[in-house]
């Protein structure tokens, strides 16, 4: 069952997570698996961010590097050059809540200095420098599980143990508990069946009291479950997966298709309210 909680995200802001929050994906990249190249132009990216906000996105998650299987890694300087102009324009607005999807501490520092509120790190704040900068700015921290699991592993048990350990490391380095959000990392180091276990057993993943994020939008697990349609035709499957996660306790979903996710979340929230 989902328990309301507060997530502090820096810049003296906090989110009261008593409903489903929507994180809209803004890939400022040429090679993302689903929408690569669609928003690599500054004007198109900024326009898309405001479009998602108008559709009901609570958070805009800006990423400058693909993390799809087989992606070509880039340098921190190249990643920053992609997101800097977009990030500066979005932060200047002052109304949007901005997350930056990066695992480079130097990019995170520049983003936080620019005005970003949240760092979404697919390596789970593994780098001490990342923890240091997040603590300095009181940033919201999305800690994702990205450790390779063996087929026979208890995925949910391994993920929960990782969360407990990594959250303790982060707090030892000055990050406050209230700044931490946890993401089980659908599609990262997990088999098809293990990814499905995340949705089926979402409520067992989280050490008590932390916000939880589900991020399965258009991913391979969705495609494999419904005949492998192209990534941009997996919206309905994404809604199904995320709804299962929300019923299991997720507070935030990270999505490409914002309008549809908002509608589905409102229905799910209404159902959850009947449990109370």
What is the compact description of this entry?
The chain is of the alpha/beta class and about 280 residues long. Helices cover about 40% and strands about 15% of the residues.
Could you please describe the fold and organization of this structure?
The protein is of the alpha/beta class and 276 residues long. The protein has a single domain, classed as TIM Barrel, CATH 3.20.20. It contains nine helices and ten strands. An eight-stranded parallel sheet has the order 8-7-6-5-4-3-10-9. Strands 1-2 form a two-stranded antiparallel sheet. α1 packs across α2 (76-93), α2 (76-93) runs parallel beside α3 (105-114) and α3 (105-114) runs parallel beside α4 (128-137). The mean pLDDT is 93.
Question: Secondary-structure blueprint of this entry?
Answer:
Layout: E1 5-8, E2 14-17, E3 21-27, H1 42-55, E4 59-63, H2 76-93, E5 98-101, H3 105-114, E6 118-121, H4 128-137, E7 140-144, H5 155-172, E8 180-183, H6 192-200, E9 213-214, H7 220-225, H8 235-248, E10 252-255, H9 258-273
Helix pairs in contact: 1-2, 2-3, 3-4, 6-8, 8-9
CATH superfamily: Dihydropteroate synthase-like
Q: What structural category arises from helix and sheet content?
A: alpha/beta
What is the CATH level 1 assignment? Answer: Alpha Beta
CATH architecture assignment name: Alpha-Beta Barrel
- Give the strand tally: 10
Low-pLDDT stretches: none
Strand order in the largest sheet = 8-7-6-5-4-3-10-9
Output mean pLDDT. Answer: 93
> Secondary-structure element sequence?
EEEHEHEHEHEHEHEHHEH
């Amino acid at each position: 069952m989902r328990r309301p909680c507060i997530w502090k995200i820096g810049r003296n802001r906090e989110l009261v997570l008593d409903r489903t929050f929507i994180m809209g994906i803004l890939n400022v990249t040429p090679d993302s698996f689903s929408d690569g190249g669609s928003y690599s132009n500054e004007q198109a990216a900024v326009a898309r961010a405001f479009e998602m906000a108008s559709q009901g996105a609570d958070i805009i998650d800006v990423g400058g590097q693909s993390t799809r299987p087989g992606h070509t890694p880039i340098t921190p300087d190249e990643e920053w050059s992609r997101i800097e102009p977009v990030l500066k324009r979005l932060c200047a607005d002052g109304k949007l809540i901005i997350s930056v999807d990066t695992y480079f501490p130097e990019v995170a520092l520049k983003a936080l200095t620019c005005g970003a509120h949240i760092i979404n790190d697919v390596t789970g704040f593994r780098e001490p420098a990342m923890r240091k900068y997040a603590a300095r700015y009181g940033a919201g921290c999305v800690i994702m599980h990205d450790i390779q699991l063996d087929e026979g592993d208890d995925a949910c048990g391994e993920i929960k143990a990782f969360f407990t350990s990594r959250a303790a490391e982060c707090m030892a380095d000055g990050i406050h508990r209230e700044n931490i959000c946890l993401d089980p990392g659908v599609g990262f180091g997990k088999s098809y069946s293990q990814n499905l276990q995340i949705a089926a057993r979402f409520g067992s993943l989280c050490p008590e009291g932390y916000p939880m994020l589900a991020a399965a939008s258009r991913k391979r697990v969705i495609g494999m479950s419904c005949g492998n349609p192209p990534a941009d035709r997996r919206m309905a499957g994404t809604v199904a997966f995320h709804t299962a996660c929300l019923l299991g306790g997720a507070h935030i979903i990270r999505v490409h298709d914002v309008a549809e996710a908002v509608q589905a979340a409102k229905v799910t929230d209404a159902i959850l309210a009947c449990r109370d």
